[in-house]
Amino acid sequence: METADLTHHISRRFNEDLEKVRNQVLQMGGFVEQQLHKAITALVDGDSRLGESVATDDYKVNGMEVSIDEECSRILAIRAPAAGDLRVIVAIIKTITDLERIGDEGEKIGYIASRLATMERPVDKYREVKHLGRQVAQMVHDALDAFARMDSQAALKTAREDKMVDEEYESIQRQCITFMMEDPRTIRRALEIMWIVRALERIGDHAKNICEYVIYMVHGKDIRHTSLEDVARQIDAAHALARG
Amino acid sequence: MWTFALARLAGILMLGLCVGVLITPIWLWVLGAACLYLGWQLLSLYRLDRWLRLRSQIDPPNLGGVWGDIVAQVVRLHRRKQFHKQRLVQLFRELRRSTAALPDGVIILSTQREIVWFNRQAARLLGLKRPVDLGLRIDNLIRSPEFVLYLHGDDFAMPLVIRPPVQLELYLALQMVPYGGGQSLLLVRDVTRQMRLEAMRKDFVANASHELRTPLTVISGYLDTLADDSSIDPAWAGPIRDMRAQAQRMNAIIADLLVLSRLESTDGEAPREAVDVPSMLERLQRDALASAAQPRQVLLELQTHDGLFGAAHEIESAFTNLLVNGIKYTPGEGCVKMRWWSDAEGAYFAVIDSGIGIPAEHIPRLTERFYRVDEGRSRGQGGSGLGLAIVKHALQRHGGWLDVQSTEGKGSTFTCHFPAARIWRQTVRAAANA
């Protein structure tokens, strides 16, 4: 009787630990999302102070990554989780790396935005960049939602959106090249914009990675470097199995 | 009913006895009759039990005597229970339907801040999904750092306004309402319209002030030239002097309006610059004594050498406004005293005057813009009507508040309260200087 109680106790504590570290990841995600929004707003509104504050706040993201990483190592060392629990921990360790990178890209955007704020602004007020920024922010948001809900279908759907982000990125790139050829005076600004859209495109990739970890966490399938159509088929099969 | 049952048992036993008298042995017949009776009872019991087990599938057994009575009572009880249950379910459904139809979003949270239930509007505003989100922690889905802080704090007096990450053009006011057993309601209201109107109002005030400033500068410039022009008819000297005074007053009002709109438009808390309050107050005292409009006593009582962490110009403008007010409403022979002191809970700055005082009913409204205690009073003194509003906003940005005590005819005391977290302690300062 006593032993049974003990194991129950340990597993409950373990659950609490897992739950806690999962919450920390999502809190870190929330902060990264906010950073990204602020960076894009700083660019669109030409708010150099906001851009600078994004750049200086990035250390918080790094701090969160380190503390979650430590917590994960501690759980691995003490609890030696297996199967699904192990997958959760592995997925968390990978997710925070990507979140930290998203934070870095956000910092970059904020920094460039604060510099661009002092320059002349284009007539379209960075409409395309804003649109791309929104799309990417939505992707990050959906990826984190899928993580919170353990929803592999939503994760797959979000991962697919990365293709659209890539297309948008290329079209802005072409546009910038056209501007530079038409009027060499815009080269400096266009180059800065290229940096920003490049960072946004990278954020899209990181969001896609997070989605892949969600699928790995839920189904135990590593889908990196697999075509998304194959993944969709596999997930559907898994669902059919679960249902049947 | 029970007497009938007893009579029946007695009858059967009697019959057994009678037959036993005719055909021996007696005990066998009596025992046989008793067994027969017991068998019949057991059969009834079995049928009752079977019916209770499979009540939904078979009809109640047709039993006689006491058993029939029991069956009837069970049926009655069951019907009554069913009726109450249905009524409860109906009530519950209606309640849910009405909450679901509320124009505001409603989320029920457990003690662990997990989502127990939410209505359609909450789902729409926050992008929640049913049924996957039931049981998830709310801060896993609404991850905005301000909200997480609000959720885990304990100050739910005011709603928190956030911009949801899904629909950036919206502003949502979220308010926690804790109720019995550690559960809480989270109310979600769309305040986009109010926020837009508020922003428009702020922009309008700021823009209008800016626009008024330019023409006014031109007017005052010409008035200055006219005042110095000796070729003008001396009869105009009076009117020109008045016009200059009024133009200056208008300039002061616009300057105050701009200060106020800047205070309003800067979001959040004031920065934490180290401000040396005692030397600032000494300077204010010197300035007040130097502007010899109405010479009178201006005293300064420094009870501490603590400073503040805050925005120096905002603190100075708040203190100046209070001091100027005090001087303005104190007749020539009166005295105005400034006091600066601190304790474990906070730091305090007070301006105590022996002036005309303020009637009690006006005190709560003093910090409203352009609020006049009586029509003649402030205008005659050339105030902008914005001083106390500036004080209030400046204090709010530092987490502080203004307290006003006044007795009509005896004088008033305006006290600024600053939280302990903003105090730059003397001991810390001494260490920094050493």
Commentary on this structure:
The complex is a heterodimer of chains A (244) and B (434). Chain A has one domain (2-243): Phosphate transport system protein phou homolog 2, domain 2 (Methane Monooxygenase Hydroxylase, Chain G, domain 1). Chain A is 87% helix and 0% strand. Chain A is built from seven helices and no strands. Chain A has helices at residues 2-45, 48-79, 83-116, 127-149, 152-182, 187-219, 228-243. In chain A, α1 packs antiparallel against α4, α2 runs antiparallel to α3 (83-116) and α5 runs antiparallel to α6 (187-219). Chain B has four domains: 2-97; 102-190, Beta-Lactamase (2-Layer Sandwich), CATH 3.30.450.20; 194-265, Helix Hairpins (Orthogonal Bundle); 273-433, Histidine kinase-like ATPase, C-terminal domain (Heat Shock Protein 90, 2-Layer Sandwich), CATH 3.30.565. Chain B is built from 13 helices and 13 strands. Chain B has helices at 2-22, 26-53, 65-100, 120-126, 138-141, 145-152, 192-228, 237-265, 277-290, 312-328, 375-381, 387-397, 426-433; strands spanning 105-109, 115-118, 160-162, 172-178, 184-190, 273-275, 297-302, 307-310, 335-342, 346-353, 401-407, 411-419, 423-424. With 434 residues, chain B is α+β, with helices and mostly antiparallel strands. In chain B, β9 and β10 form a beta hairpin. The A-B interface holds A 22-23, 26-27, 29-31, 33-34, 37, 134, 137-138, 141, 144-145, 148-149, 151 and B 127, 129, 132-133, 136-137, 139-141, 143-145, 148, 165-166, 168.
